[in-house]
Amino acid sequence: MSVHxxxxxxxxxxxxxxxxxxxxVSLTAYTTPIARxxxxxxxxxxxxxxxxxxxxxxxxxxxxxLDMMIAHGQAVMxxxxxxxxxxxxxxxxxxESKEQAFRSAARILKETGCSAVKLEGGAEMAETVDxxxxxxxxxxxxxxLMPQLVNTTGGYRSVGRNEKxxxxxxxxxxxxxxxxxxxxxxxxxxxxxxxxxxxxxxSPTIGIGASPACDGQILVSDxxxxxxxxxxxxxxxxxxxxxxxxxxxxxxxxxxxxARTFPAIEHTFQLKR
Length: 273
Ligand SMILES: Nc1nc(=O)c2c([nH]1)NC[C@@H]1CN(c3ccc(C(=O)N[C@@H](CCC(=O)O)C(=O)O)cc3)CN21
Ligand SMILES: CC(C)C(=O)C(=O)O
Ligand SMILES: [Mg+2]
Description:
alpha/beta, TIM Barrel, eight-stranded parallel barrel, 11 helices, binds 5,10-methenyl-6,7,8-trihydrofolic acid, binds 3-methyl-2-oxobutanoic acid, Pyrv/PenolPyrv_kinase-like_dom
C-alpha cells in the first residue's frame, strides 16, 4: 500500500454509475461549516448560483459572478472530503461561445479543485457540453425550468404542460445526454415528462420539482432546512424549521445582554488571586 492514502472522493463517473442502482442524493452547499454537516450524507454537493438569492439577497441569479462561484467553491471544498463537488457556471460566463465556457470552467476546476461544473441549457448548449467533456471537464446538465433565463421566460414557472414544451424538453434532455453530461438536473418539470426522459436517457436525471421518477433528487439546503423563507416553491419540503430557532436564540441573547445576565461568570476572564 502506498503512503499516499488520501481518501478518494466520489467522482462524476461514480455518480453516473448509480443510475439503476439506487437514488442519487444531492444538496446545495455554499460555505465550509454547512459542507462539513452535509458531506457524510450526500453523493454530490452543488455550489449553486442560487447563492446569489440565498446569501446575497439578489432578486435573481443573473447578477452572480464567476469570482463569487470560485470563492464559495473553495469554501465548500475545504469543508468536504468524500462527496463529489460540482460548481454552477454563472450567467454570462459560458453562453457566448464554447471557448468562453471552457475558459470559465477551467478556472473553476483549477482554482477550487472541484471535479465538475453545471451549466443550464438544452440543444443550444450541446456543442459546448461536448467541447468541455472531450477536453477533460465533466459537465452536469440542467434542463426544464432554467432560472438564468428568467429575463426571457418571465418567471419561475414549471414546464411540460403543452405539446410544444414537452417536445422542447425531450429534445433538450436528449441533446445534453448525447453530448456526454455525466448527469442532468431536471427542474420544475411535470411528472410524466420527467418519468419519460429518466427512462430514455443514458445518464441519470437529478430532479428538483420533477417528481420521484428521477434517478436522484436535489434541493437548496437553506430551503429544506427552513432557513431561507423568502419564497417557498411547491417542490420544497421543510425537513427542519431553523428560522424560528435562530430568531428565538437571538431574542434570548438580546434580552440577556439588556438584563446583564450574559455574560455570566463562566464567560468572563478574571485575574487569578
Ligand atoms: N432558495 C432558492 N431555491 C431554489 O429552488 C432556487 C433558488 N433559490 N434560486 C434559483 C432558482 C429559482 N427557483 C425557483 C424560484 C421560485 C419558484 C416558485 O416560486 N415557483 C412557484 C410557481 C410559480 C409559478 O408557477 O408561477 C411554485 O409554487 O413552485 C420556483 C423555482 C429555483 N431555484
Ligand atoms: C437548484 C439547483 C439545481 C441550482 O441550480 C442552484 O442551486 O443554483
Ligand atoms: Mg443554479
